[in-house]
Design brief:
two-stranded parallel ribbon; 10% helix; 24-stranded antiparallel beta barrel; Helix-hairpin-helix motif protein; mainly beta
């Protein structure tokens, strides 16, 4: 009994920040697609899964739950009826405290909507600016003011209809708002399971065709993180202006069949070369005449369909996607671009399959576009102590995909062949060892490499948790011949939600870089506060160190620490009115060099950032 009271106390203290990113998810992210991982994660947080309606496929798509844990959740619901609270998950023996912490921000129970149980609204406004003027402002290159502004609204009606919009501008942009998103979503509309109008994202299969869902990746979760989730269509409310689709998406279910269709039409920023375009521009910045000249240069139309059949323990699916540009996509003349997609029209077809046994999951996808590519993997639980994963992928240089993000060492799943092994071993009750080994080859040339090449990397992480309020972590990661990295971290909850964290990170490329960060977190009355003071020594950008920073709700902060000096921040949160909260963050870096580059370069060695956010729920 004391054990469960202790777990409930710790979990409830954590869920005071239940819309924030769990510490367990930040491990090992490094600099691999950081923005996309964080945006996908916050999309999950904003659209949590209902424990009383969630399907087996949706739970498996979370990637950090194994087969046994998914089955235990479903069996509990079938045996005891609907969940009354997310805290009911604690009585399921296979769900550890770490798993409960990961689940807390992304699941809900239907009755937990706003007071009245029928509707919920929230309105959020955020503004921030850098106190020091950058080169672009000092030389009058930017047409707008120094404020970054962000306005977001969402209305959910009985969990069947939702409306959301987002408006945002970057510092230096002239218009009050430069980026707009709006999404309307209907659920269970006659024969249609879901209809979305506006902005959305989606993921089918293992990401060879399209990947718009959260995945932990091999660095953070070497066993369950290698499998991509398959949540289908989801509303898209991201600040990243280069991601997502805009148009219509719908899907329908007939017994054990699911049919999906989408159409997207939008203009994309691009670099032009006469009547062609050489690349899409992903920064989303429109401050200078040069940047404004790249805005909306290419019209993009995308449509696709998928069909999925669910059997008792397996899922089979097929997907097709077609993309049309109004200009010819022609990359710069370089030998490594020889097999890259060129033209106006792109087509891709894929077959997907998953099979779940008692303690294992098989997953695979095969896709064709100019060449046949595929990925197949296995995640298994062996007894109570050991979890393992195996992944094989083969993405020929001729294979092309415009929106794919399958398991790979490259940023896109092309020109790569590899074998991956991951494991997690729990021993002596308080200890856990996890790691991975990845061996890969690149059959064709890459940027900066004028011949076929190969590589390998591995990682080891050790957890020691002598009690539920104290955790020690150590890790090592190496890419042979390229880089090495290490980290140490201590987390100590010494009273209710009062917490101390100290971490040291080291990276070596051509030299050494390290950072030591100390965090303090707690509450006083209605005030909740988080503090950090970090010391850094990274002589070059090559040896930069990434350490996640706490930020206001729905904001992401994963800065590269480089240079020599200190960085600190103060983040506070307080309720203003009954349903209104305010966040304030001040951060400052004091280094031995000028900060920023290009038009963002600051004239001195100090950078001070100030951010304020208001959220009103009703």
């Amino acid at each position: 009994m004391k054990k469960w009271i202790s777990i409930l106390f710790l979990w409830m203290s954590y869920t005071c920040y239940s819309q924030e990113i769990p510490e367990e998810w930040k491990e090992g992210w490094g600099d691999e697609n950081l923005e996309r991982k964080l945006e996908d994660l916050y999309a999950l947080i904003q659209e949590p899964l209902d424990l009383n309606k969630v399907s087996r496929d949706e739970l498996m798509s979370l990637s950090f739950l194994n087969v046994r844990q998914v089955e235990d959740i479903l069996i509990h619901r079938e045996k005891y009826g609907h969940f009354l609270s997310i805290y009911e998950l604690q009585v399921i023996p296979s769900l550890s405290l770490d798993i409960l912490r990961k689940l807390a921000p992304i699941v809900k129970v239907s009755s937990n909507l706003a007071a009245g149980g029928s509707e919920s609204h929230f309105l959020l406004y955020r503004t921030d600016f850098t106190l020091e003027k950058s080169k672009g402002f000092l030389e009058d290159e930017f047409g707008g003011d120094r404020l970054r502004q962000h306005l977001r609204y969402k209305w959910v009606n009985r969990d069947r209809f939702s409306l959301a919009f987002l408006m945002e501008k970057d510092p230096g942009e002239k218009d009050m708002f430069d980026h707009y998103l709006i999404t309307l979503q209907w659920k269970n509309l006659g024969p249609l399971k879901q209809v979305i109008l506006g902005n959305y994202s989606f993921q089918w299969g293992q990401g060879l065709v399209s990947s718009g869902g959260f995945s932990l990746g091999k660095g953070s979760e070497p066993v369950l993180g290698v499998k991509k989730g398959d949540l289908g269509f989801r509303p898209f409310q991201s600040l990243s202006e280069d991601l997502g689709f805009r148009g219509m998406a719908l899907n329908s279910e007939f017994k054990n069949m699911e049919l999906s269709f989408f159409y997207s039409h939008q203009f994309r920023d691009a670099n032009l070369d006469g009547e062609n375009f050489t690349s899409l521009v992903t920064s989303g910045l429109h401050r200078t005449e040069n940047e404004i000249g790249k805005k909306d240069n290419v019209k993009e139309q995308v449509w696709g369909t998928s069909i999925k059949r669910r059997l008792k323990n397996s899922t089979l699916g097929m997907a097709y996607m077609e993309t049309h540009f109004d200009k010819v996509f022609r990359k710069r003349d370089a030998l490594y671009n020889y097999f890259s997609f060129q033209g106006k029209h792109h087509q891709i077809l894929s077959l997907q399959g998953n099979y779940g046994g008692a303690n294992y999951t098989l997953f695979s996808e095969i896709a064709y576009s100019e060449a046949l590519a595929g990925v197949v993997g296995l995640s298994a639980t062996i007894g109570r102590e050991l979890d393992v994963s195996l992944v094989y992928r083969n993405y020929p240089a001729r294979f092309t995909t415009l929106f794919g993000d399958a398991f790979s060492e490259n940023s896109t799943p092309i020109n790569e062949r590899g074998q991956f092994l991951g494991w997690k071993y729990r021993f002596r009750r308080h200890w856990e060892l996890q790691g991975h080994y990845d061996l890969y080859q690149f059959p064709w040339l890459k940027f900066g490499i004028s011949h076929p090449s190969e590589g390998r990397d591995y990682s080891l992480k050790l957890w020691y948790k002598p009690r539920k309020t104290l955790t020690f972590k150590a890790q090592w990661r190496e890419k042979y011949g390229l880089s090495k990295g290490a980290g140490l971290r201590v987390d100590w909850i010494f009273f209710k939600d009062w917490k101390v964290q100290s971490q040291w990170a080291w990276r070596a490329v051509s030299g050494d870089g390290w950072a030591w960060a100390n965090d303090f977190e707690g509450s006083t009355g209605k005030w909740k506060w988080k503090l950090r003071c970090a010391y850094l020594h990274a002589p070059s950008y090559e040896n930069r160190v990434y350490i996640y920073e706490n930020d206001v709700l729905y904001a992401t902060s994963f800065p590269a620490y480089y240079g020599e000096g200190i960085r600190y921040y103060v983040l506070v949160k307080r309720p203003l009115l009954k349903n209104m909260d305010v966040w304030v963050k001040f951060a400052q870096s004091r280094l031995d060099r000028n900060l920023g580059s290009g038009w963002d370069e600051l004239p001195g060695t100090v950078k001070s950032d100030f951010r304020v956010q208001l959220k009103y729920s009703f």
